[in-house]
Amino acid sequence: MNKTVKLLTLTAMASISLAAADFITAVKADKLDAAKVKLENVMLYPQTTIGNNDKEATAKMKGLKALSAKAGVVFNDKEMMVVVKWKDATNSKQKEASTKLFGDAVAVQFPASCMEADKLPYIGMGSDGRQVSVLLQKNVEAVYPVAENADVTMQQVRQNLNMFGDELKKKEAAQKALASSKYNKVFVAEGFRSMTEVKDAKGYEMSMTYKAGEWTAVFKKPLNDEYSKACDVTPMAIAIWDGAKDGRNGNKWLSSWTPIQMKDSPKAKADIAKITEKSKGNAANGKKLASENCAACHTMGDMKAPMAYMAPDLSNIGGYATAGYLKESILNPNAVVVPGYNKNAHPSGVWYNVDDKGARTSTMPAFDYLKPNEIDDIVAFLQTLKAGVK
Ligand code: HEC
Description:
The chain has 390 residues and is of the alpha+beta class. The protein is built from 8 helices and 16 strands. Strands 1, 2, 3, 4, 5, 6, 7, 8, 9, 10, 11, 12, 13 and 14 form a 14-stranded mixed beta sheet that branches. The two termini are 26 Å apart.
């Protein structure tokens, strides 16, 4: 075996052992116990669709590799529990009132209702008319409760407390007793920046623990409530932020919709096939078509648009978009308009217009005149666009 062949074989082996599972089998058990889940590999890719206002933080995302996490689910008639594990060399904690130190964080996302497997909400926190719920937890330094406690002095740091000696000590002890290091919240969203916290969410429990270079996050939620529903196949997406890389907001790793199989039914099989579909098109021809039709606006890996973010950067789109979504994006750009256009980070393009009823229309033309096999080829090419594993 010559060197290249050996190297190729090794790479192939490495990618087999890390290959993402097509779906997660939810384990049914009367009592929910994190040890009962069947963990599967889920790959997460650097979110490159939009840039962040903080250019320094976005620069830290450059060249980032994919992140291999593990996830599993256990459920009973009332609730479900999701376990997510991933390696992180540093345990980064968000410091109160710091704009420079960010905490590690993790979120899971579910569609609000059971829907057609090829019409799932936009992966980046849903889209108009396709609502999601997001369960988010962050590793934060203990902070004083803000809403619960009307006493503002409980939120003041020592320098701002006009107290000394025993009085100061007493105050600080009282603050410490009230402090909570928990940041776990439930949101509903219909697109980036539309996240709304659900303050009365009941039956949700979350925790994240760091041990030996690995995070384990647990999310417990009602099986069905007004924010999300359990289906034969419940699609779930995972996001992970690395505080050491200034990770926050869009600067994160993101998985594609990952099917959680909760029932062994023909519909479940069909849904899994749809969500994890790989285009049978010719990727090489797709690349050629993309350079002719799409590269004027989109950056796609080595193919660079004339200016950054004239349109979403598709360099990792194969990592977090389904084939169904990609096809829909090409044929009917208005079906889902990427809600994240950011004037500050990328003033070089307008991504959509808003009509007098407030509806957004994409500035991307529909490519519905391309032949079906050409669309398949482009989708096959887009599915190859994703970072390698670190
Ligand atoms: C005139 C500029 C332009 C051209 C040409 C163009 N697009 Fe787009 N595209 C956009 C804009 C702007 C958006 C964001 C608004 C939206 O979601 O429609 C977008 C969105 C997308 C998305 C969704 C991205 C995401 O992150 O979810 C995909 C996929 C896409 N385009 C693929 C293509 C492909 C494939 C082609 C070529 C066949 C193409 N585009 C040609 C401007 C363009």
